Amino acid sequence: MQPTDRFGVAPNGKHAVTLDEDGRLSSWNLATGALAGRTEKLGNTVWDLGFVRESNAVIFSHKQQLKQWDLDAKITTIPFPTDHSFKRFKVSADGKTLVSYFRGGRLALWDWEKKTIRKTLSTNDVKKDARSFRFVALSTDGRLVAGFGDVSSRDSFVEIWDNETGKRHSRTEKVDLACIQFAPSELMLAVGVAPLNRERDDSEKRLMLLNGLTNQIVRYYKPPPNPFDSECRRVFAVAFSPDGRLLASAEDNHSVVLFEVASGLPRRQLLGHRNSVRHLEFTSDGRRLVTISRDQTGLIWDVSLPTTDRANASAEKIKECREALGNLEDGFKVQTALAVLAANPAAFLDLCDKDLRPAPALDHAAIKKWIADLDSPEFALRTRAGKELEKLGDDVVPFVREAVAKDLPLEQARRLTTLLARLKPDEPTPKRLQQMRAVELLENLATPEAKQFLERLAGGARQARLTVDARASLDRLAKQTQR
After folding, report:
1. Are residues 296 and 322 in the same domain?
2. Is 307 contained in some domain?
3. What is the average per-residue pLDDT within 41-48?
4. Does residue 145 share a domain with residue 263?
5. Residue 200 — pLDDT band, cuts 50, 70, 90?
6. What pTM was computed for the model?
7. Domain termination residue (choose one: 372, 406, 423)
8. Chain segment 445-464, per-residue pLDDT in tens
9. Nearest-angstrom CA–CA distance, 11 and 31
10. What is the secondary structure of 42-74 as a DSSP string?
11. From CA 113, how far away is CA 91, in angstroms rounded?
């Protein structure tokens, strides 16, 4: 591939488009790696590119206008008002909203179909943020908008707004921010840091997951050792897998690391680039990852589970791998276990049939009563209610979060918040990890038997996490079949 400044993978997963240093857009066949098409030189006035929903035509900003290249056809201008200049932009997953920025720290939210501005978002201190935004992001459901920009040559900020109300949720100022990306299914935001000062040694904090509503740090992602490790870790790009289970980071040490989002563990390290990796993106089915390094090299990785030479494993090995799915410390061991089980699907399904059951039905009325009892004047009643709720573990988290969001008496709200902290919903237990990883493997297998088992799990208690995971897997498999 040519030196590239911008990059995107088409929704059909068959080609990628790059903006090269000479000002051309290039289309690449992901099956062969061959150049499939190229525009004429567009100069240095192309700022950004992307795709809209299922369309495989690339949208890009050129000379402050939005244009479209159909790959096999000529470039056309999209009829947006000419009094607005487009540079950085992002289109929502449903294709209904486009967000772009003005100078002076303002973002415009456009109705894509009508080509009209629905609302404008602005920072509190326009003068301070006059350098404006370098990058914008939208949550998958279109609910949240994130703007990432510079305050000075070193200091950066991230602001998050509600798309519908225009209300700003939070603002965080950090040093040397490099990239942001929303998770596909939750209001979480991955943030990468690429410091200019190579003497800083807080490398474990260069990649973090933020709560999109509060900007609070959920966890950090620590990379594994690497033969090309530098004195200072820098993360230049991040990408979530379409199912939201993995987070890929483009590292300065020539590697790409695939982290498990839920646990923070590195599950795979991809070594092959000879320079720092600057761009990456998953294909829509999540089975391939396209990466581009600073030295012009583009690589296409198969990130599906390898199964060769792992079939016909012994019953003891299968059981060992099944237990390893609950591992909290070694993500590489988890990845190996998943590969062995994927190569022995019948044995894996037999084990699931024995120890993986649909989530039992919850007594909603009892849960609501226990939540109400936390405001009881009787100490014994409050204590019993707290214990009963805590016994339910992960499955009660949605109820507690829903209650905390309401306008409750101060003491009741405090007790619910304390309960939520004790449940640690962002720190999965070994049992929860076993369930999550088993569902991941069932989705990856995608056989009739695996789908049947997912349907059985999807019939469990409606708000239980296991049920929600199984339903999400079935939805993704159905969409892949439709493509």
Report:
1. no
2. no
3. 85
4. yes
5. low
6. 0.87
7. 423
8. 999 999 999 999 999 988 88
9. 14
10. -TT-EEEEEE-TT--SEEEEETTEEEEE-SSS-
11. 12
Range(s) of the domain holding residue 270: 4-302
Yes or no: say if 278 and 250 are a contact pair by the CB < 8 Å rule.
Answer: yes
The tokens describing 215, both together, are: 């900007």
Are 395 and 465 contained in the same domain?
no
For position 2, what pLDDT does the model report?
Answer: 41
State how beta strands 58-62 and 106-111 pair: unpaired
What spatial distance separates the first Cα and last Cα of the chain, rounded to whole Å?
28
Q: Domain count of the chain?
A: 3
**Cα-based distances in Å from 31 to 12, 17, 459:** 12, 14, 38
341 and 419 share a domain? Answer: no
Q: Do residues 333 and 321 touch, judged by C-beta distance below 8 A?
A: no
CATH number for 65: 2.130.10.10
- Residue 130's pLDDT is 45
Last residue of a domain, one of 423, 446, 473: 423
- Tell me the one-letter amino acid at 118: R
Tokens of 225: 């050792």
**More reliable by pLDDT, 129 or 443:** 443
265 and 391 both lie in a single domain: no
Question: Could you tell me which of 374, 365, 359, 361 has the C-alpha nearest to residue 404?
Answer: 374
**One-letter-per-residue 3-state SS of 424-465:** CCCCCCHHHHHHHHHHHHHHHHCCHHHHHHHHHHHCCCCCCH
Q: Are 301 and 286 in contact (CB under 8 A)?
A: no
**Is the domain of 215 the same as that of 324?**
no
DSSP helix/strand/coil, 142: coil
